[in-house]
Structure formats: C-alpha cells, structure tokens
Write a structure and sequence with these properties.
The structure is a single chain. By secondary structure, this protein is mainly beta. It has a single domain (about 10-85), classed as Chitinase A, domain 3. The protein has strands at about 10-15, 30, 45-50, 55, 60-65, 65-70, 80-85. It is elongated and about 65 Å long. The chain starts with 7 loop residues before the first strand and ends in a 7-residue tail after the last strand.
Length: about 90
C-alpha cells in the first residue's frame, strides 16, 4: 500500500437513483391456485405462474380466504440506501 491516507466515506443513494419510488398501486388480487403453495405466508417472495408460463416474483401483502394480494415493488423501492465505503488500497499508474 502506498502512503495515501485511508478513510471511510459515506454514500447515500436516493430512491430515484436506486430502486425508484414505492408504487402503492403495484398490488393485484390473485386467486390462490395461481400461486405455488409455499406462497401463503405474508412477506414471503413466492413465484407465480402467468399465462405465458413465465415466473413472476412478488411479495405477499395480504392473504384472504380465496385470494392473495401480491405486491410487485422491489423490497428496497422508496428507500434511501446508505453505504459506508473504505478504500483499503489504491494502485495509481
């Protein structure tokens, strides 16, 4: 390592530059049979099947008698993300 002073640096990324803002309308009503059985726990990330046989990842918001309310926001959407960065070595050519 050279004689460069090593310090911690803090970095914050706002929602619009990370996972965007929380979309409160990104929830749908889905019949339970459309989701795999392990999906029936709140806050899980189940896999559902759509008509084109694509896998869709969601987050369960609410479970009702015959339906599940999955949310489609990324879990970090709407949040500012904070990092503490430490550069331990630099190679300057």
């Amino acid at each position: 390592m050279n004689d460069t002073k090593v310090e911690n640096s803090k970095l914050s990324i706002k929602p619009e530059n990370a996972y965007w803002h929380l979309n409160k309308d990104a929830i749908s009503k889905t019949k339970k049979e459309q989701l795999l059985q392990e999906a029936f726990t709140a806050s899980t990330t189940p896999q559902g099947l759509c008509t084109e046989i694509k896998i869709i990842l969601t987050r369960v918001k609410e479970i009702k008698k015959d339906t599940v309310l999955p949310g489609y926001n990324q879990p970090l959407a709407g949040k500012t993300i904070h990092f503490v960065v430490k550069i331990s070595d630099m190679n300057v050519n």
